[in-house]
Specification:
The chain is α+β, with helices and mostly antiparallel strands. Helices cover 15% and strands 33% of the residues. The structure holds alpha-L-arabinofuranose. Alpha-L-arabinofuranose binds next to loops.
């Protein structure tokens, strides 16, 4: 029996072939793969592989944002119990969260959060230290996870705002200490005056300590107010001030994403509209940003804001794709809110003004804010997303077209990314089609079997409809099988890249022990470690091995291939770079190896040695801190020609890079 599986035809998925890690391996399969170099299929979208960053799982504060002090401006607050039920933090987070009094040599220190005479109205809270007696006393911050991880020899930039409201002018001291008080770095500061003033210092650490504390003390009684107490490693990504954690940013950059969608996700539309993400609160001097709590139950300093996201996109060669609320709160939250009629214009104006912030001249209102932040050049924003995964309601259906109309009138050059709603049934796609958005964003979190079974989802979609952004997807796990299933799906997307123009896995980041999204995340981390999942490697490999055109191909399984009478599955995606490189991606989700008998037709100058990258292992294998490279790509060379055989291992992703030129 011959099973003939052509690209563009539905592959029927056989559960038994990849059912369990212990499933008996059936006899080896053989497939003939003919690739037609002279029959280009669709052009590959230059923005096909991107990333979706959301501040979930402490991805921002406590994650990518390199600030080491938690709750630096004392703006944490207790959330109303029950009201925002779904994602309230397990631990209450009052304004002194992550802070402790320090009392030494007989002096005592009482801490209280006040708001009477703030640094500025947008940053209302500060801490008052009431110091009594002689000795030394002050305040300590424990960072995230009960301590601040510092490295021997590393340099840290410290700053705070301070003023003394009672007692004799006395210098402050800042130090990094072990939990038992051993000093790791120490430097004197100035004596605070009667008005708020910023002080800065540099700390060089003598010894590595995973749970250090940042300690600020004084030696004379009275009252001292502090705010915006901050500590950054000097060594941030690209050395930027107010920058990003280098190891995490480098791991993201290595994906070579072509788009960066930010900052969510559900945090964009908020639990209620009161905590929806308003980009204007996140730009300008960090001390004047307006912190907020987020949909995932923790707090955001907004030190990582829209400027920093766009700068990060620029630094990694990605196109920024900011998402703005569409006047509706998260449909899963209570209360589920809609903009009042008389406030809708504010939400719409936020979209219009963001374009000016990114692309406006330096003498425009918002272009000036960007320039003052150190980026007079334009960010060259091309896309703007309106709404995130909205529920299908009459209110949204009535409001959304108003956003589109205003953007078309005021910013006709911007491509609008709309929302298809939640899940593969894309309930809002008709609305997106009717309003004529350029691209519609669809999201699905489904089992791996779904991704394999649905790899042909886009083979038959109508080409006149808006293009598609698969802006959030994941196969609900971080095992090798999940990664391979996602690879199978992506191979189907590559052959439909005229219609699916962008993709992004979700979520991107997760801090161990701080997750709201537990089943699957692309990169796991703590203060010292970064773990790249098998899914990460698929993203990285697919993004880095992509031609300019898909090539027509046929995959034909030979006799004996079927198991239990059902057809086998092998995803094949050949793409050719105009400059002369053939990339052949293979994803085998079966427990059976496949002997692939290649015939390369219509290509010139085929180089005899190809580069072969293989990601393979046990179906249930994963990476963790102890074995971060358990599943990692292995690169070898492999002899090729216009005819050659390659054994594709069970449960694997392989990529061939073959030097070859178009006919
Ligand atoms: O990626 C996690 C969440 O999943 C996003 O915030 C939301 O858009 C989706 O429901």
């Amino acid at each position: 029996m011959i099973l003939h599986v052509r690209n563009k035809l539905t592959l029927v998925v056989v559960g038994a072939l990849f059912a369990s890690p212990n499933a008996a391996t059936c006899a080896e399969l053989t497939a003939d793969i003919v690739i037609h170099g002279d029959k280009p299929g669709v052009a590959i979208s230059p923005t096909l592989y991107g990333i979706f960053y959301e501040d979930i799982n402490y991805a921002g504060d406590g994650g990518l944002y390199a600030e080491l002090v938690q709750n630096r401006s004392f703006e944490y607050r207790l959330l109303e119990p029950g009201k925002f039920s779904m994602r309230n933090p397990k631990t209450p987070m009052p304004p002194l969260f992550a802070w402790l009094p320090v009392e030494r040599n007989g002096m005592t220190c009482q801490l209280a959060v006040a708001a009477e005479h703030p640094l500025n109205p947008r940053n209302p809270n500060y801490v008052t230290l009431t110091l009594t007696g002689d000795g030394e006393a002050g305040i300590a911050n424990t960072g995230y996870d009960g301590g601040i991880s510092v490295q021997a020899g590393a340099v840290y930039d410290f700053s705070l705002y301070a003023r003394r409201t009672a007692g004799k002018a006395t210098p402050l001291t800042v130090s990094l200490e072990t939990p038992k008080g051993t000093v790791l770095a120490k430097t004197p500061l100035a004596a605070p005056a009667g008005e708020w003033a910023k002080q800065e210092a540099v700390l060089t650490v003598t010894r590595t300590e995973p749970k250090a504390r940042l300690v600020v003390t004084t030696t004379k009684p009275g009252t001292v107010d502090l705010d915006m107490v901050s500590l950054f490693p000097r060594d941030t990504f690209k050395g930027r001030k107010n920058g990003l954690r280098k190891d995490l940013a480098e791991a993201i950059a290595a994906i070579r994403p072509k788009t960066l969608r930010f900052p969510g996700g559900c945090i964009v539309h908020g639990n209620g509209l009161a905590n929806a993400y308003r980009w204007k609160d996140t730009v300008g001097d960090v001390a004047e940003r307006k912190p907020n709590w987020n949909r995932w139950g923790y707090h955001q300093s907004y030190g990582l804001g829209y400027f920093e996201y766009m700068q990060f996109a620029e630094d990694i060669g990605a196109t920024p794709l900011p998402i703005l609320p569409g006047g509706v709160s998260c449909g899963f939250s209570k209360p589920f809110e809609f903009s009042k009629d008389n406030e809708l214009s504010d939400w719409i104006q936020d979209c219009v003004d963001l374009v000016e912030f990114a692309n406006g001249p330096v003498d425009s209102t918002w272009g000036k804010v960007r320039a003052n932040m150190g980026h007079p050049a334009l960010f060259n924003l091309k896309f703007i997303g309106i709404g995130n995964e909205e529920h299908d309601t009459p209110e949204f259906r009535s409001m959304f077209p108003k956003f589109v109309a205003a953007m078309r009138e005021k910013c006709p050059e911007i491509h609008i990314v709309g929302t298809s709603g939640l899940g593969p049934k894309i309930p809002l796609f008709d609305l997106m089609s009717a309003t004529g958005v350029d691209i519609s964003d669809e999201h699905y979190y489904m089992p791996p079997e779904w991704f394999v079974a649905n790899h042909n989802r886009f083979d038959t979609v109508e080409r006149k409809a808006p293009n598609v952004y698969v802006g959030e997807y994941a196969s609900q796990g971080n095992t090798l099988f999940n990664a391979v299933a996602e690879a199978v799906y992506l191979a189907g997307i590559e052959r439909n890249s005229d219609q699916v123009v962008m993709t992004a896995y979700a979520p991107l980041l997760a801090r161990n022990g701080f997750t709201q999204w537990q089943k699957a995340n692309l990169i796991w981390f703590d203060a010292e470690h970064v773990v790249k999942t098998p899914n990460y490697h698929v993203q990285q490999l697919f993004s880095s091995n992509l031609g300019d055109h898909y090539l027509t191909n046929e995959v034909t399984f030979l006799a004996g291939a079927a198991e239990n009478g059902k057809p086998p599955v092998l995803a094949v995606s050949p793409t050719l770079a105009d400059g002369g490189m053939l990339f052949v991606k293979l994803a085998n989700p079966m427990a059976t190896p496949v002997t692939a008998r290649f015939s390369l037709q219509g290509l010139k100058g085929i180089q005899p040695q190809a580069q072969l990258t293989t990601l393979s292992g046990d179906k249930a294998a994963a990476n963790d801190q102890k074995s971060p490279d358990n599943i990692a790509p292995v690169i070898t060379t492999f002899p090729v020609g216009d005819q050659f055989n390659l054994t594709v291992p069970p449960m694997s992703v392989q990529i061939l890079r073959i030097g070859a030129t178009p006919p």
